[in-house]
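Summary: Need help interpreting a holo structure output

Steps to reproduce:
1. Submit the protein chain below together with the SMILES for magnesium ion.
2. Request a joint structure prediction with the ligand placed.
3. Inspect the structure token block that comes back.

Expected: a single structure record containing both the chain and the bound molecule.
Actual: see attached output.

Input attached:
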Amino acid sequence: MTQRPLTTIGFDADDTLWQNEQFYRLTELQFTELLADHAASEVISARLLEAEKRNLRHYGFGIKGFTLSMIETAIEITEGNVPANVIAQILDIGRDLLAHPVETLPHVRQTLEALSGKYLLVLITKGDLFDQERKLAQSGLGDLFDAVEIVSDKNASTYRRIFSKVGDGPERAMMIGNSLKSDIVPALAAGAYGVFVPHELTWSFEHVEEPTDAPRFRKIGHLGELHGVIEGLS
Ligand SMILES: [Mg+2]
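--- attached output ---
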């Protein structure tokens, strides 16, 4: 009996299934406006990015860590003189970000519906547990997944572990996402297929070179093209 080459498909969530980065960008814009008297917006954004990177190991990925990094940046930019009412406004815009509407991307629902039942579908995302659970519930896509994994980081061992637990190992699995760094490169390293779906907005932290010479690397323009990639494997 021949084995099916693919039994399990992992999907990233933010900016793969639904919009995410655009809400961060809007919040960042509001943040730079709050501090406009102290520095130019590019300077504030650069300092914020440094704070976020520095703090990842303390807070992990997600909005709560982002909010704390905004406060830290406000303290730095004002040399310790940020008024309490500005901190209160930063907390407000952080909370607004936690309540942003969930907008699924084109072709997402149809693609998941077509694959559900034929493959084991697993949502693999990092970020705040609370926030990701809320977004999944509001997206209405939860029932289409066989498993949901909200992880603190995405590396090769994360994918090896999840695809072994949920499916038949990484060799018969595929990961789909908008981040080369988090979704594609480590999934390929684990032995899975990696299907890159670029999103026009991707956090600069997530940029790395495209692994174009990896035999299991694929790139599509939108999720509607996933079907063709899967057909091509068998
Ligand atoms: Mg993503």
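--- end attachment ---

Reviewer comment: The first helix runs from residue 21 to 34. The mean pLDDT is 95.
Status: needs-info
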